[in-house]
Hints:
There is one protein chain. By secondary structure, the chain is α/β, with parallel strands linked by helices. The chain has a five-stranded parallel β-sheet with strand order 7-6-8-9-12, sandwiched between helices. Strands 1-4-5 form a three-stranded parallel β-sheet. It has two domains: 9-74, HAD superfamily/HAD-like (Rossmann fold), CATH 3.40.50; 76-186, Rossmann fold (3-Layer(aba) Sandwich), CATH 3.40.50.1000. It contains six helices and twelve strands. The chain starts with 8 loop residues before the first strand and ends in a 5-residue tail after the last strand. The longest helix is centred in the middle third of the chain and has 12 residues, at 75-86.
Amino acid sequence: MKQKNTLKTILLDMDGVLWQGPQPVLEIRLLFDRIQKLGAQALCVTNNSTRSVSYHLDMLKGFGVSLDPSSIITSAEATAHYLEGKFPRRGSLFVIGESGLRDALVRSGFQVLADGSGKEAIAVVIGLDREFTYRDLELAVRYVGQGAEFIGTNPDLTIPTPTGVAPGAGAIIRGVELSSGKKAHIIGKPH
């Protein structure tokens, strides 16, 4: 007797799972075809806050898979959604992160403070930033010390790269935690 499928949604990680750099790790199109045959929805999630939803859609399209934008959840988008609920009147954020995170926050109506602007930040938001500096660390610690909410996009201490592992957002977050004595509220997987 054939058992009825009860799966409604299948969560799939992307970076380092479906693909590594520009190369697929497995037969991505076949995987999505199988999910569709099961009658389940594929929901792609990633702790990568550096890239936009459209970037991930384009990557999938390059592997022969077309998805609706609502089927992609990045830690940047999840962080913006969390902050929208926490701060309905919006405000200024001190952000350590790349364009995927900054753009998601600006689209949600937040102002991203420029380095040393002197304005008050309602929150410090940290994602992966491959141009992270000591000045970024100093300002993040200062804003957190002044009472700004402390948010991390994900806890990943390392990330996979084509040449091996590299420090992830969690490494930057941990530095601010150690320097400020405060714990970050983490948004991304597995939280």
